[in-house]
């Protein structure tokens, strides 16, 4: 129970710090992320990258996604199906976006469902070892577990601002560490234990 309480406190504090970033600074930092990472995120043309449209005070990675598409990525967005499940639907030119809940939009039910090779993961806090705290609903944890169960090993890149880093995240058995985190200071790679 202590880990859950600690995660709750860390989540609240780091989201409050993110909320304090003025809108103009958030835009500048988001554009800087695209500049820093658009050419160094590794993938093969045709691989699937899941991004997200920003909600609240999240980094806006749409410029980054646009550049990754220009390098040949197939893009998709997470869509909430129910209280426990998200699926990743392809973004296609001319396909309308629909309300997908939580203040965001995404491809409608006619869009192809894809298994991402790279997930750009929103988060509330991260540490220097690649552990992260999400928003508490567990959508990404379950989606990643489902991909692993299919024999997939997506690369996980957290998206955050520098102010969201903490010294240590309590690690639980179901937690999957990130391969990297992208902030306004760069793409920070982590060593995963084998």
TrEMBL record:
**E.C. number:** 6.3.3.2
Question: Where are the bilayer-spanning segments?
Answer: none
Cofactors per UniProt? Answer: Mg(2+)
UniProt GO BP: folic acid-containing compound biosynthetic process; tetrahydrofolate interconversion
Q: Does the keyword Ligase apply?
A: yes
Please list the reactions this protein catalyses. (6S)-5-formyl-5,6,7,8-tetrahydrofolate + ATP = (6R)-5,10-methenyltetrahydrofolate + ADP + phosphate
UniProt: ATP binding residues? 7-11, 132-140
Keywords noted in UniProt: ATP-binding, Ligase, Magnesium, Metal-binding, Nucleotide-binding
Q: Which GO terms describe its molecular function?
A: 5-formyltetrahydrofolate cyclo-ligase activity; ATP binding; metal ion binding
Q: Does the keyword Acetylation apply?
A: no
* Entry binding sites for substrate: 58
Belongs to which family? Belongs to the 5-formyltetrahydrofolate cyclo-ligase family.
This chain belongs to the protein called 5-formyltetrahydrofolate cyclo-ligase
Q: From which source organism is this entry?
A: Rhizobium setariae
